[in-house]
Amino acid sequence: MRTIGLEDIDDIALGSSLLGSGGGGDPYMGRLEAIAAVKEHGPVTLLDVDEVPDDWTVAPICGVGAPSVSLEKGTNGIEYPKVRAMMERMLDTKLDAFLLSEAGGMNSMVPISAAARAGLPLVNADGMGRAFPGIQQDTFTLNGVSTNPFVIADEKGNCTVLYTIDNDWTERIGREITTASGGQVTTLASPMTGAKMKTSVVKGTVDYAQKLGRIIRTASDAQGEEPEAFFLRESGAMRFFKGKICDVLRETRDGFNFGKVTLEGIGEDKGREAVVEFQNENIYAEVDGEIVATVPDLICLVDSETFVPVTTENLKYGKRVLVVGLPCDPAWRTEGGLELAGPRWFGLDVDYVPIEELAARRTDA
């Protein structure tokens, strides 16, 4: 057990933004909100998974919608107590702790803010180990946890409760409500016991995010080592490409950000071209027509000098970035994981190959 104080928030936000694989929302607004909540209500207690009593009731809280909308729309503070009160009313029991739904930038901050304001602890775990666009694309679903009741609140005061026949239907109906609410909402869902949670999460998410954030923050000051080499070695990220963004295509539809970014090589990659496609998160990357990574592995664009992650809504012409990747949690490499979040779920006509194998092929070529 430890606490999350003001001094921890920046690194958690920064590292979570890398784990967000381009999605999970820009952490800027969420970071400001979390700082304000901790200043007003004090540090948040962070519990490791094994410290949570088996009979507790825990649930993940997050923002759902198009990341570009969340950056402009934000929240107004009424959503967190509203979804919690409704969840407790539906369950007829008190909520004992919050979870992270995913390891995305904005969605790493929402649970900290909600926990601080509610005076509840936060569990050091999430349901993805990264960020995915689908409500049902989490390890809770993989382990048979229902989203019911799925509670949705917007900044206007509207609150909706869904009870659906399965988690896929929660995604369909929930996405329509999100769109009707302006493209961004706050949700609290998938309540489970502490015992069930222990077998259904990716453990250590907050600590891992904070470690990655510290690596990014200190890379430029690395002693006796090139900053890029330090960042790659310490983070374990695999480098695919260094380039300048020369084209960005994006559109918002059905509550998602869709798009493609094209990069022209610089430095040792001069004369080469890379393409990264995204649906909220980066889902596919190729260099000179050769696939270098696909979901569910993490594909990340980071500033070529500071290594600060660049989320999909912040991709801009002329930006110089590194395209890097990280292996996904082993849960996503199972048959069920690939069915729920592999390339073909996203409409990509390719088979999943682990990022390490693709990297080895390029090295051997």
UniProtKB/TrEMBL annotation:
<dbReference type="InterPro" id="IPR010318">
    <property type="entry name" value="S-Me-THD_N"/>
</dbReference>
<dbReference type="InterPro" id="IPR000595">
    <property type="entry name" value="cNMP-bd_dom"/>
</dbReference>
<protein>
    <submittedName>
        <fullName>DUF917 domain-containing protein</fullName>
    </submittedName>
</protein>
<dbReference type="InterPro" id="IPR024071">
    <property type="entry name" value="S-Me-THD_C_sf"/>
</dbReference>
<dbReference type="Pfam" id="PF06032">
    <property type="entry name" value="S-Me-THD_N"/>
</dbReference>
<feature type="domain" description="Cyclic nucleotide-binding">
    <location>
        <begin position="223"/>
        <end position="276"/>
    </location>
</feature>
<dbReference type="Pfam" id="PF20906">
    <property type="entry name" value="S-Me-THD_C"/>
</dbReference>
<dbReference type="InterPro" id="IPR048350">
    <property type="entry name" value="S-Me-THD-like_C"/>
</dbReference>
<dbReference type="InterPro" id="IPR027479">
    <property type="entry name" value="S-Me-THD_N_sf"/>
</dbReference>
